[in-house]
Amino acid sequence: MGRRLLAWYRKHKRDLPWRRTKDPYRIWISEIMLQQTRVAAVLPYYARFLELFPDVQALARAPEHTLLAAWAGLGYYSRARNVQKAAKQIVELGEFPRTYSSLRELPGVGEYTAAAVASIAFGLPHAVMDGNVARVLSRVTAEGGDIRSERVRKRLRGLAQLLLDPKQPGDFNQALMELGATVCVPKRPLCETCPVRMHCEARKQGLEHQLPVRGAQGSADQREKKLLVIEKGGAVVFWQRTAESSRLAEFWELPEREQLPHAKVTGYAGVFRHTIVNTTYLVEVSRATLRSLPSGFRWLAKSSLQDIPVSTTAKKALAIYSRSK
Ligand code: SF4
Fold first, then answer.
1. Same domain, 49 and 147
2. Which of 67, 114, 168, 245 has the highest Cβ tally under 10 A?
């Protein structure tokens, strides 16, 4: 299975910028950005990020607001803070960590990222396990257990390590992930073009559409939010999250209606849905005016917003507001 998979990968892999380098810094940044974010969404951020912070030293000394502004839109901002903490650690160390265990000591680097960087940048034999790999292996072995259970994850991790080509671990890991991302996709896998179809038990048993098995997961929480856009002379009212905020620390947000009970709502601008982790917000955006600005709020010039960290919810609300005018 390994040889066929690698041959297929060399021929069909997508040409992605992090695949053109062996620089551990660039590979690490790509792996962090790709956590929970699609490749197409990552591409422009990755290019811009590396222009701003071309090496670990530049990242370590970057002002936090520049870093967060460069990350704004990718979400999961703890990742941005962790990459900078890790960059500072690497600068102190004097070199990029070169082993799985030393990579694991970096903030924000879990098993997956350590295995990915160790194998791709340093050629070390550590198998990766992500959603794509888990799906492919559960189909190849017709795993009937719940893919979310620790027992099944452990079995699949063991299998990935067993299958790993120790001479080409980076390519092998990427090949399995690529297969999951482009051929063995969640819905309607493209089995006819799959390089490992003759080894695939799910395919042999006609189970490719039923696997992997996923146990029930709590349904996403639904909440409502009512945001106000209060604009005067090219400036808009915002408030800033504190540095201790568990989410989006120091990001700027539009006020919610209950934060400004004295604001006068003058019109409806629109509504949109926004999902954050397991919560879906139905966000209603209204125009409003305000006689005087209470403490804790600031007028920010609209022209300055691209240079400071503004939450994605606020950006979406402002876009809806602009279109409604
Ligand atoms: Fe996935 Fe189909 Fe390939 Fe099996 S044959 S690994 S189900 S794409």
1. yes
2. 114
Is residue 31 flagged as an active site residue?
Answer: yes
Atom 4 of ligand 1: nearest residue by CA position: 200
| 208 CB near ligand 1 (under 6 Å) | yes
pTM of the complete model? 0.72
Q: Which residue has the tokens 């009212």?
A: 237
Q: Are residues 225 and 170 in the same domain?
A: no
Q: Within this chain, do residues 93 and 237 fall inside the same structural domain, yes or no?
A: no
Q: What would the pLDDT profile of 97-135 be if each residue is shown by its tens digit?
A: 999 999 999 999 999 999 999 999 999 999 999 999 999
The DSSP symbol for 184 reads S
Q: What is the mean pLDDT of the chain?
A: 91
> Percent of the chain scored above 70 by pLDDT?
98
Closest CA to 288 of 269, 270, 306, 275: 269
Domain that holds residue 176: 2-204
Nearest-atom index, ligand 1, CA of 191: 2
